[in-house]
Structures are given as structure tokens and as C-alpha cells.
Design goal:
Length: about 375
Amino acid sequence: MKPYLKLKIWDNIPDGSQNDLQVEINTCIATKLETYKAEAKDVFMLNVKSGYQLKMNDKFFFCPGVAVPRVKLKDLASSHKAKTVRELDAATAIFIGNKTYDALAEYDWDIFVETEFLKEFMEEAHKAEDLPDYYYEKITTALEFYTLDDIIVDYSTAKLLRNQSYHYNLENKSVLLKESSQRTLTIKENMVDFYMDILERPVYMENELYPYLNGPDATVIDENMYESIHDMFSSSDKDNVVLAMEIMANCDWDKSIMYLCFLLEDFANTIYNQRSRTHVNFKSLLSYMDRSPSYIHICKDDMIKLIKEKGLLTKDIAEGILKKYAHEIYIGNTQYFKVKSVSLSEDIDKLLNEEIVLETKLLDKDEYDN
């Protein structure tokens, strides 16, 4: 993230009269994203720590986007006299979540121009009496201590800088102006002060707190419990559905994550039709699963991504997901081609230090059809 100047230049008098250029200068905290798939957390430069240990009298500050359910803090308030605070300076532990990045920043497409050529354009415009003293002094002051190699401009400004009506135009000088716009990540204007304040402070991901929230007695959803909850969701009794959602929201999320994924995908529509999906506990679970009350479905690729990013992917989980969804590939067989094995991607094999292969020929086609 860098403190860029954002410049807008326009013609006040489009007929080409003297003193017709005006300038608006702003600043922003932004970064260029080298690839389209680059994510905020990879370039945010926050000081993220791991290994949080709960202490007596801890004071929690939750950054925007954190999904920790406040109602679950009551046990920590009783056992450790922990509490939440509204001031960063008062906190003993600061927590961020995956949604924090979206709360602080936004993606955009911006055009850049080299600082040296922009300076040259302004100097020549001033000499030609196209740029009034007021604006020239304004831009000169802004650039005096500016050290970045380029400046952000909007589309109209880029077009003006190439306009051959100005003999000092940058059409044949600037390489950046000839390129397409650059995908950028920019801190939202109303979040700049907060971002700068949190930048050097140690922060923890919200999942570091979950083991203490769920407690040692929290239910772990295993295969048997998954089947029981599956039956509850399949019941025509609405109370069973609500109870199933309560069990999900109050279980040990980390240790139950694979079956939570399965349940969200199996019963996304059923859950969507329940008002309790917006209750604070279940809403927090959805946020933990990188879902929302309006979008509950989670495909097999998103399952792997979610579990991997949380550092929870194991061989058993990889095999469990592969086994559950192997039929989606199995039904792709043709008259002459049969898929006899399914494996995970190379990056998952490297992460697990083992290749996970499922022999789909062991699946009973008639059983699948049923």
C-alpha cells in the first residue's frame, strides 16, 4: 500500500482560450494488483500474528468485518473477566476477519502516469499560460515531497494529457498512458485514518479466538451426528430444522468444518427459507464459513479453499470431500470413456505431502442412480 496522489485536470473553457486548465488534487492509499486474482489480504501489509493466548482481563477490539458473536463472549467475561473495547489503545488483543479487508478497501481500475512527465506537462502548461498560477502552485506544492514514480489520473485526465491541442502533450512520452487501466486496491476514504492507525499494531485473525468461544464442551459434528442433523433438516417439522441450525451454530466450528460445509451445501435452500438464518449466532457461523444469509451455497472447490485458508485441511478431510463429490465426475462417463479415479489438485497434494486418489470404479453406478 502506498500514498498516491490522485489528479484530475479539465478544460474550464473548451474553446482553447488561455488559462483554461483547472486541477483537483487528492490523495489515497492504494496498491497495484499484479494479477486479477490477487486478493486484499496478500497486499494489505497488516502485522498479522498467530498463537493468541487468552489472558485474564483481556480487552478485545474487533475490527470491521469480524464475525465473532458477541453473545458468546459472556462466558469469557465470567471466566477471564474479558471484555470488548471501542478504542484501539485500550485493547490487549486486536482481531480482524476475512471480511475486514472488504470493509477497509475496495477494488478499482485506475490509470497511471509517470510523475516526471506529469511535472513536465504542468510546467509547460504554466509557461504557455494554459495553467493559472493558483493551480500551478497547488500542484507544485503537492509534488514537492512526493516520491512515488507515478500518479493516478482518471480517464478524462488521461485523454487530456494525450490531447494534441497542447503542443506539450504526453502522447509520445508516457508509456503508462498508452497502457490499459491498472487493477488497484484502494483504502476507502472513510477508513484511511483507521487503516493507518492499525497498520503497525499486531493483530490476530478472528479464528484464533474461536477455541475459547466454543469451549472444551462444544459439540463436534462427526459422521454420526452429521447423519442425525441431515435427518433433522429433512424432517417436515420446522422445529427440527431450527434445532439443526442451532447445533451447527454452537458446535466447535474448526473441528466440525467439513460436515458444516456438507450441511450448508445439502440444505442451502432449506436454511435460506428460515428466518433464524439471520440470528446473530447462525449469521456468525455463515461469516466464519465465508457465506452470508443471502448466499449459503458452498461448492466443493470453495470447501477446499475455505478449509485450506483456515489451516484445517487434513488427509481425512480431503478424502471425505473427494468421496462425497466423486459422483459429480463419475456421471461424466461416456460410452467409451470411463473415469476410474479422481484426485485433488497438485497444490493440495503438496500441502498434504501426499497424493489423494479415489478409485471411482468402486462406486456402484446403480446405487448412484438411486
